[in-house]
Design brief:
Layout (H helix, E strand, L loop, with lengths): L3 E2 L6 E2 L3 E3 L9 H13 L4 E3 L8 H13 L6 E6 L14 H15 L4 E6 L8 H14 L2 E7 L3 H14 L6 E3 L13 H8 L2 E2 L24 H4 L1 H6 L3 H17 L3 H10 L8 E2 L4 H8 L8 H8 L22
Parallel strand pairs: 3-4, 3-10, 4-5, 5-6, 6-7, 7-8, 8-9
Antiparallel strand pairs: 1-2
Helix pairs in contact: 2-3, 3-4, 10-11
Length: 330
């Protein structure tokens, strides 16, 4: 396996990151352990979690498995802060107070003394950005986190934060976590070019579009269960008819090439030069096998373009469509 460097941190990670959102939820402890071990067997050293995943159970199980395997120092671990973690009115957001309490609880659950990449999980319009950045910088100085990261912020918000960090000599965001898949390509407009320009690591989530790109969906095709049919947020996120047209054409393309749609969908994301590692997740070993199959696909520029042409390319930030061909990963 060829490992990749996260931005300019020097930290080497596998080209896939295993997302543990299912741990302790749709995957019980036994299945979670099996998936953790299967990922490790394929050389995955990068694991993503968050304090809100299954009310902290995801972090607890990840910490338990690292302890069982005595492999903490071999792994690169992430977690996140922002979401509501208790009934208290202040148990959410990006205030110094919530960040301080949040990291302490995450460290306990993960059974570790530091978190390699610690993400602010969403944008907090109620909290001054400088306060948030100083709180993250303090955690770096205390050794409780090694690098700050950011998820679900707009490019302008991230650039503003990078400017403040430079001006105030604070530890900057070194990694971003945007949504990105063949159906949802908005990250190509500003976030991915920004990450390349600023030399930031990128671990994108939802490479399968919540299951949309696994071959189970089409224009008139729906499975009996799955996130897109069971969860309102995912049904809304992928509610446009065009997404199911893309899914149908993509699945047909994958079958013609003799590969699993899930493997190809992840491989397509992984082949974007701006992406360090897509985050894969699963509820069982069979699903995980499909995503891990991306490691066995040799994606060429020509093949990537064939797949890309199956979806709708978002217009550039300036709407100057004639300039679009100059962006390398189109």
């Amino acid at each position: 396996m060829e490992y990749r460097t996260v931005g300019k941190t020097g930290v080497q990670v596998s080209p896939l990151c295993f997302g543990t959102m299912s741990f302790g939820g749709i995957a019980d402890e036994n299945m979670s352990r099996k998936m953790f071990n299967a990922a490790r067997e394929r050389g995955i050293n990068f694991f993503d979690s968050a304090d809100v995943y299954n009310e902290g159970r995801s972090e607890e199980l990840l910490g338990k498995f690292m302890q069982e395997n005595k492999c903490r120092d071999e792994l690169v671990i992430t977690s996140k802060v922002y979401g509501k973690t208790a009934a208290d009115v202040n148990a959410k957001g990006l205030s110094r107070r919530h960040i301080k309490l949040g990291v302490e609880e995450s460290l306990k659950r993960l059974k570790t003394d530091r978190i390699d990449f610690y993400f602010v999980h969403s944008f907090d319009s109620k909290t001054d950005m400088l306060q948030t950045l100083r709180a993250m910088d303090d955690l770096v100085k205390e050794g409780k986190i090694l690098y700050p990261g950011v998820s679900n912020w707009a490019a302008w918000q991230i650039e503003k934060a990078l400017g403040i960090s430079r001006q105030e000599s604070l530890a900057r965001f070194e990694i971003v976590q945007p949504m990105y898949n063949l159906a949802k390509r908005q990250a190509e407009v500003e976030i991915l070019p920004m990450a390349e320009a600023e030399n930031l690591g990128v671990i994108s989530y939802s490479p399968l579009g919540g299951g949309l790109l696994t071959g189970k969906y089409g224009k008139d095709k729906r499975p009996d269960k799955g996130r897109l049919v069971e969860r309102e947020d995912y049904a809304t996120r992928y509610g446009l008819k065009q997404y199911y047209q893309i899914a149908e054409e993509f699945s047909s393309h994958a079958r013609d090439k003799g590969v699993e749609p899930a493997s190809l969908a992840v491989a397509w994301v992984m082949s974007n030069p701006a992406v360090t590692a897509p985050i894969i997740g699963a509820r069982n070993l069979e699903q995980l096998k499909g995503s891990l199959g991306a490691l066995d696909i040799e994606m060429t520029k020509e093949w990537r373009k064939e797949i890309t042409d199956l979806s709708i390319t978002p217009p550039p930030a300036t709407d100057r469509l004639e300039e679009q061909k100059n962006i390398s990963y189109f």
